[in-house]
Design goal:
Oligomer: single chain
Strand content: 15-25%
Structural class: alpha/beta
Order of helices and strands: EHEEHEHEHHEHEEHEEHEHHHHH
Distance between the termini: 47 Å
Number of strands: 11
Helix content: 40-55%
Shape: globular
Number of helices: 13
Strand order of the largest sheet: 3-2-1-4-5-6-9
CATH class of one domain: Alpha Beta
């Protein structure tokens, strides 16, 4: 049995579905199983994966565990450390910030590194450190693009190599189902660095919409993202600003691990065109 946490998220959902299609017995841990739309062949159990007790019960008898970090919750470190020794394999969805932030001062990097250390109590573990998620466009931009063809957003020239969640999930499945990736830490990105404005253009091309990037200042961005904890918000804005001047962070790890080209942002935009296809009101 393989336990998947975070299965309502972009990556965890893909992991659960890929495993289920392969014939694996998949158990999903969900806070509100009644509200989550999972395929009927998944074993869905109620629980909070930041709670050591519910995570321990759900992982009883598990051969492998897919683990992700919810926001900045420090409880996952304790839960992971308790469960890891009793699970054959643990794959943790970390962050590329753990590779990039050599100073160790970034709070997001610190939190992920703490959990990385905790899962090393498992007999076998794999850490995946994705860079900028292509799916950030769904999280950050879709609310505006549902009602407008204009995106008001900062740092149009910030360059990232967005990674497709499908590539992350496929690497995670390899770590969960084979022993070939034990003890490995994979820092992955998409294959090509493009600007935020170019990402928006790719979404426009995939949906046949004429989308306009209206670059706003940092203060307006703070207001738009005010729901985030202040340390996270400031860390994100700082990283976007650096990405306008620093050389882009790109690795070929995804292609090497998967043995095929990593998916581009243009492919991601095509895969998600339906979400962005609604014409402006």
């Amino acid at each position: 049995m393989i336990l998947v946490t975070g299965a309502t998220g972009n990556v965890g959902n893909q992991v659960a579905r890929i495993l289920a299609r392969s014939g694996a017995y998949v158990r999903v841990l969900a806070r509100n199983p009644d509200r989550a739309a999972f395929p009927s062949d998944l074993d869905v159990v109620r629980g909070d994966f930041t709670d050591p007790e519910t995570l321990a019960r759900a992982s009883d008898g598990a051969d492998a565990l897919f683990l992700m970090l919810p926001a900045m919750d420090s409880r996952l470190e304790n839960a992971a450390g308790r469960v890891a020794p009793n699970v054959g394999r643990v794959v943790f969805l970390s962050s590329a910030l753990a590779s990039i932030d050599q100073s160790g001062t970034n709070p997001i990097a610190q939190r992920h590194i703490a959990v990385e250390n905790a899962i090393q109590a498992a007999p076998a573990w794999t850490v995946i450190r994705p860079g900028y998620f292509a799916a950030n466009a769904l999280r950050w931009w879709l609310p505006q693009l549902r009602t407008s063809d204009t995106l008001r957003w900062p740092f149009a020239n910030a360059r990232f190599a967005p990674v497709h969640e499908r590539d992350i999930a496929e690497i995670a499945v390899l770590g969960l189902t084979t022993g070939d990736h034990a003890g490995q830490t994979y820092t992955i990105t998409g294959p090509l660095a493009i600007t935020a404005a170019e990402q928006l253009a790719a979404i426009g091309a995939s949906t046949h919409r004429t989308l306009v990037y209206d670059e706003v200042d940092r203060e307006i961005a703070r207001e738009t993202l005010s729901f985030l904890p202040p340390p996270v918000l400031e860390g994100i804005l700082a990283s976007w600003q650096r990405a306008t001047v620093d050389p882009p962070f790109v690795t070929d790890v995804a292609a090497r691990v998967l043995g095929k080209p990593a998916r581009s942002f243009a492919e991601w935009a095509t895969d998600h065109a339906t979400a962005f296809a609604k014409s402006a009101a």
